[in-house]
Design a protein that fits this description.
By secondary structure, the chain is mainly β. The chain is built from 2 helices and 8 strands.
């Protein structure tokens, strides 16, 4: 339960960070340093702080899995919960964050890779039931999804500690 709380807090942090759909960097002249050395950003028209970076990974065919695997161990050792925002991929490192966008309705969700799969030819991602619901592909079951890797500026690989 504690790891679920940590995941939810990390997800909330991502939302509160104010990620934007396009990558923008603050120009050096827009940044100010206060007495404590903390950077604060001046109001600059059409410029927002770039905390998250989105790297295009292309379009992938995705499906979803849930009820049959709910409560079982995932490949990284977690207990699979179909109501969390997670996904399976054959090669992405565990903990990798992906923003998935359904081009049919422009709905997006950020998921964390915690499992391996899918094992059906032609499919590249398996989403949890909750993630599939968020992007509106629950009914169809399979969809072509735009995939972007989410990274934190200045951090190679964000690690989420699990107890």
């Amino acid at each position: 339960m504690r790891s679920l709380t940590k995941i939810m807090l990390f997800s909330l942090l991502l939302v509160l960070a104010g990620f934007s759909a396009r990558e923008r960097i603050i120009p050096a002249e827009a940044a100010d340093y206060d007495e404590s050395g903390t950077i604060s950003v001046n109001e600059v028209s059409d410029v927002t702080p770039a905390v998250l970076k989105f790297t295009d990974k292309g379009v992938m065919k995705a499906s979803w899995y849930g009820p049959r695997f709910h409560g079982r161990l995932t490949a990284n050792g977690e207990i699979f919960d179909q109501e969390t925002l997670t996904a399976a991929h054959k090669t992405y490192r565990f903990g990798t964050l992906l923003r998935l966008t359904n081009p049919a309705n422009s709905k997006s969700v950020i998921v964390r890779i915690n499992d391996r799969g899918p094992y059906i030819h032609g499919r590249e991602l398996d989403l949890s039931k909750a993630a599939a619901r968020e992007i509106g592909m629950l009914y169809r079951g399979v969809a072509k999804i735009k995939v972007e890797e989410v990274t934190l500026q200045g951090v190679n690989f964000p690690v989420i500690p699990f107890d």
